[in-house]
Design goal:
Helix content is 64%, strand content 4%. With 688 residues, it is mostly helical. The N terminus is likely disordered.
Length: 688
């Protein structure tokens, strides 16, 4: 009875649909017969037409399903149920899983006429309420119908720009920007018919560069904004980078080759803008060759600017140099901070830090020359940059740094370029990029602007007190001749390292090679990219302490005995490289005919030095040596350390020398660390 009531309540159309559905599982021909009858009686019924489609769909009959779908799209374009089904079709066209259902929908789409396909995709895009969905459907539409790019491409780009602006994302790593720069803009650029207004073209180029930089410099998970993994300067981060694009799932956030994608876009944009250097990034050109091309272009652009014309050549110079600069800086920074951005295969296991190298000076005929350092900076051109590593990545890192410096100087050496580059950096909020601030410190050091470098270091509170910070401060103080402040920085570093738990390795051939690279023939100034493991940093600190003492000795006439004694202690390191320094000290002692240094028997263990002083004691009675520590001197009251005066004094000196000879096998580095950390006031008094 209830079934009769339910049937009676149905309309004729619904009754026919229900009968067709029931027959679907029993007899396909019966089901089709019901629907043929219904469509004849009710040709305007959406329910009947849609059920006819569903029956063919259930039988996986793509040809008839496509035929019914075409009729539905022609006659019932306003039906929401139809567009729900269309959504399944468009999803299948973007689906990479290739399951059975996706293959069916894809086949149905292929069976549709080109005109219906065009209408289906375009209408589906226009009906979408989500901008992301709209963008994906428009991309799909333009993929199947490239001719549609000329009609809808510019409007599509502008809609994505507008959507991003209204969404007010805090970062360029958002869904609209990714769709714009990775998909939409390249697609439009590849269309030779579409003309893009110059202002819009350059705006989109800037958006591309900004997105690429933001993507490749994402901080590792666990590292705060602007932070640098390994804050003590000695440990590379082991964090994994999360490729996060706001508004997109993680699987859609990955960009396989961001730099290559940017270079491709730049090349396509260059064609639209009629640039001269269209393929400089994709041609495999070396950095030096590319720089020469940029240099030639800068001369051409400079003459045009002098004539008061802002031309496309100047725009070309701006964007080519900007991308070149950031790409070089990225490669350098990625090497200096391993795994800060992404792991560089073959890179060092420790961060690198740019420090001042040393000039290998001849000690003959040394005269006071307080002004020498400033002259060396200003009169001998750009400094050379060395590195202890010999790998291809290490060489590329040095080349990347020096090229980035050249690009930076070009971008700030031209009024037009500086104005536009500064404006772009302000839009990008580049002042918040810690890696760029780090480069600016090293740039100031490279250019010999040490006081400005110190101020820049002090402004960065994130690194204050760490090893990297103190190494670069020490370099600046050293070049300014402020040796006491330099020593304070070095003591801070050594204190940190001595108390750290990192295991030190013995000195290897590579370490010795690195030491040799710290010295360059005078007068060429140089910087050294120090791989900041514990061994290298301790070695650098010791050599810098010694160098400070040598500089002071050479600029003082005569040098005080404490300074000579301290330099004597440190000249034992890396012997016999510093034998010439030792000879200089001996010459000063012989000239003065006296030498008082109470720490001699605590820290002098080098056999060559001990033999020389023993020889002076035996054969130069005119030279007064007061070397025994205070305790030993008190035992022999009124004792003076000259040969032939009081037998017990001679015996004490001889025994002390014998004890020192027995210590010759001690670790000199450990000895110098003890001196540096326990005799701070003795060191400082040498500079008074």
């Amino acid at each position: 009875m209830a079934a009769h009531v339910k049937v009676a309540a149905m309309s004729d159309e619904d009754f026919i649909v229900s009968q067709a559905k029931t027959a679907r599982n029993i007899d396909a021909y019966m089901a089709r017969a019901w629907l043929i009858t219904g469509k004849t009686l009710y040709p305007e019924s959406f329910a009947l037409q849609f059920e006819a489609y569903n029956i063919e769909k259930s039988f996986s009959n793509t040809r008839l399903a496509a035929l019914h779908l075409e009729r539905l799209l022609h006659n019932f374009v306003q039906e929401s149920q139809l567009w729900d089904e269309v959504a399944h079709i468009t999803d299948s066209l973007q689906d990479v899983t290739n399951d059975e259902q996706s293959r069916f929908y894809h086949s149905v789409f292929q069976m549709l006429s080109k005109q219906v396909q065009y209408k289906l995709l375009l209408t589906a895009a226009e009906k979408s309420t989500s901008t992301v969905t709209y963008a994906r459907l428009m991309l799909l539409f333009m993929h199947f119908f490239p001719s549609g790019v000329s009609d809808y491409g510019i409007k599509f780009l502008e809609s994505l720009l507008s959507a991003e602006k209204q969404a007010k994302f805090a970062t360029p790593l958002n869904c609209y920007r990714k769709l714009l720069v990775c998909d939409a803009f390249p697609l439009v650029l590849k269309n030779h018919i579409v003309q893009i207004q110059e202002k819009l073209l350059y705006r989109l180029v800037q958006k591309n560069i900004e997105f690429c930089l933001a993507y490749v410099t994402q901080q590792p998970s666990g590292g705060g904004s602007g932070s640098v993994p390994g804050q003590n300067g000695l440990t590379a981060s082991s964090y994994k980078r999360q490729n996060c694009i706001e508004g997109l799932p993680l699987k859609d956030s990955y960009v396989s080759k961001p730099w290559e994608s940017l270079f491709t876009v730049l090349e396509l944009a260059a064609v639209k803008a009629n640039w001269k250097l269209r393929d400089v990034f994709s041609s495999g050109m070396s950095k030096e060759s590319l720089w020469q091309q940029v240099l030639v272009m800068s001369h051409e652009g400079g003459s045009e600017h002098a004539a008061g014309r802002e031309t496309s050549r100047q725009k070309e110079l701006l964007y080519i140099t900007t991308v070149f600069f950031f790409h070089c800086l990225y490669q350098y920074t990625a090497y200096v901070f391993p795994r800060l951005f992404e792991n560089i295969v073959g890179g060092p296991n420790f961060p690198g830090v740019l420090v001042e190298g040393f000039q290998q000076e001849s000690l003959e005929n040394q005269e006071p020359h307080i002004k020498k350092k400033k002259l060396a900076v200003s009169q001998h051109g750009d400094p050379v940059v060395t590195i202890g590593e010999t790998s291809k990545n290490a060489t590329n890192a040095v080349m990347s740094f020096t090229t980035a410096v050249k690009c930076w100087e070009l971008l700030h050496g031209n009024e037009y370029l500086q104005k536009d580059f500064t404006r772009i950096c302000q839009i990008w909020k580049a002042d918040d990029w810690h890696w760029l601030q780090t480069f600016q410190v090293e740039l100031l050091m490279y250019e010999g602007m040490f006081e400005e470098g110190l101020k820049k270091l002090q402004q960065d509170e994130k690194i204050t007190g760490n090893v990297r910070f103190n190494l670069q401060r020490a370099s600046c103080y050293y070049m300014l001749g402020n040796y006491v402040q330099c020593f304070d920085c070095l003591v801070g570093i050594l204190t940190t390292l001595v108390n750290s738990t990192e295991e030190r390795q013995g000195q290897s051939d590579e370490t010795e090679k690195s030491t040799n690279l710290l010295y360059q023939p005078e007068p060429q100034r140089h910087l050294h990219l120090l791989i900041a493991n514990k061994e290298n940093v301790i070695e650098y600190c010791i050599l810098l302490i010694l160098t400070c003492m040598k500089k002071k000795m050479f600029s003082s006439s005569p040098a005080n005995e404490t300074l000579l004694g301290n330099a004597l202690v440190f000249s034992q390191y890396n012997w016999p490289r510093e034998e010439e320094t030792f000879r200089f000290i001996l010459k000063a002692v012989m000239k003065k005919e006296s030498f008082r240094y109470k720490l001699f028997f605590d820290y002098i263990i080098n056999i060559d030095i001990l033999e020389e002083f023993m020889y002076i004691w035996k054969h130069h009675s005119n030279v007064a040596l007061d070397l025994l520590p205070v305790g030993a001197a008190e035992i022999a009251t009124k004792r003076t350390m000259t040969r032939g005066v009081k037998q017990n004094v001679s015996e004490d000196f001889k025994q002390a020398m014998e004890r020192q000879v027995a210590r010759c096998g001690e670790n000199i580095q450990k000895l110098l660390l003890d001196f540096s950390l326990t005799k701070i006031e003795d060191f400082k008094s040498g500079f008074v």
